[in-house]
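Archive transcription. Copying these from loose printouts into the bound notebook so they stop getting lost. Printout 1 of 2:
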Amino acid sequence: MRHVLIAFAVLATVVFGTAAPAGAAASRIKDIADIQGVRENMLVGYGLVVGLDGSGDSLRNSPFTKQSLEAMLERLGVNTRDTDLKTKNVAAVMVTAELPPFSRTGSRVDVTVSALGDAKSLQGGTLLVTPLLGADGEVYAVAQGSVSVSGFKAQGAATSVIKGVPTSARIANGAVVEREVAYAFGTEPSIRLSLRNPDFTTARRIAEAVVRQLKGQARALDTSTVEIQVPPQYRADIVSYVTQIEQLKVTPDQPARIVIDEASGTIVIGADVRVSTVAIAQGNLTVRISEAPQVSQPAPFSGGRTTVVPRTDVQVDEGQEQRVVMMESGVSLQDLVNGLNGLGLGPRDLISILQAIKAAGALQADIEVM
């Protein structure tokens, strides 16, 4: 059996205080934190898309589409309760949108339209007037317009071709804001920042940056919240103060983590991952199985029957070559990646090696399997 011997030796790095590590990239505060209270609001609505070229819902299989169509026509003065509707040019859809913060009445937002029934495509359709509701049940926007589909579907009697998702579409600026979200920004004596990736070190670095560069008062409340006091001279112009805070640069800290996607064989290793001295023997056993069935033909007039005789060839390759990769203590992440790549192992083998190192307690990092 082929064995691969890997030896890792890493010297742990001790960092005092909250100083940023050398070579780390600094980010603006606006890219790593949000202002509490300044956020989007989700909107949802139910509507009908008309004008489809026979690719809409089957009214027999989608009773909600038929009921919605009858109710809409009845509101327009057309009575279809006693008729048998057979159109396939209508599709029931769910309409979703995000209402940006501080959106004013009359402004427009993009909407996403998704088929709800058995429609084949929304290509060429038009969304009828659809109220969009918030979590409180109130109407905040109204959507309407021609849908734009990025995919398509073409089919014949024996085959079909589909690209993208033709049952999902978008309408650019397709909704008009009808109600504003009440939020009095700037009335409080302090501002709170919410970190997108909560971390004690990052929160403290943000507070220190505000104190050092803006001469303000700030403190980290927890892993995700930083409270900043608004100076008296900015009480009437808090937007200017928030702009200065957003442009400050801070180096965010992150825990040592390895993310593994077993489905695709993707491995992402963080910069702070460290490995203690460890030796690993990894076996590489290859088994090849091939089928070559043969036909046994009897002699003429012998009364025999033609049969298929199976032939299976099994080959086992254990390999005798050994490869040894040694890494000196204090290796960097690049040295670790180069060493693993130099072994010629595939992603599956690397995943097994990393999980085995973690199980042995020699990997100073968290492994997250997606």
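Printout 2 of 2:
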Amino acid sequence: MSGEFEHVPVLSREVMEYLVFPDAPARLIDGTVGGGGHSAQLLRRYPQLELLGIDRDDAALEKAAETLAFAKDRVTLVRGNYSDLALFAREKGWMEVDGILLDIGVSSPQLDQPERGFSWRADGPLDMRMDRREALTASRFLNRGSEEELARVFREYGELSGARRLAAAVVARREEKPFATTADLVALCDDVLGKSKKGRLPAPTLVFQALRIFVNDELGELERVLPEAVEILRIGGRIAVISFHSLEDRIVKNFFRDAAAECTCPPGLPVCVCGATPSLRVLTRKVVTAQPDELESNRRSAPARLRAAEKIAEKSMK
């Protein structure tokens, strides 16, 4: 299984630019270690760096163990949700860390394996679970979710204009035959939503994105992890987050902005009464995207967006 998990890490140069460890020893949490690509580069550059790598995909962890074998005495791999990174770190005896990396979303190996059901371009079971120990699959949701809940997921997570029409069609279709494969859903998308206009993402891309986000609670995971990550960072420690669509990037951007704000009082007050002090300094003045040479060699890097910040103080609120 591990041999099938080949992943090219995106924005690797930029990650190396923002995650620096001048002091030895140092501790890094890679909350989405995947195949270990980013972590391998950092472990090679910093011989005294220790790594806690987390992933909920068993195939990814098998590959990471191979990739990071050269530094095995400095590496701990854990299967679980990255929103629990502070818990995993403290179980290891780490009360604070020097860096945190999160590379959010689905990986190329997951997309390229039809049996995982993440991609609409190859027929396979409608699974989409990053952690295959979980009970909820995409097919289970399609076959059991209410029309209202289906429409909400398509609209909010896929930003699909035809969300209500598609939800009604799903409910009608499953009465005749339950959804089982990606081809089943793609055929319905084509019938209900038609072919996408030039310059726009194909409708199945948005529908599969919505289902994947819902099945894996991806936005909830991200919202839960950010305050945990900042809390466990030491003063001067850094966090870097790579996201792949606007919903994720907006969460990161807003969190960093709020944590870097000097005042959280409502507009219009003559003096500050909140007593807040910023806990982060944002390092990326604007979002960082792939350079032309990376885009040429890895087209899947196109939607990648990196934001980074440095912890400057513990959170302080009156």
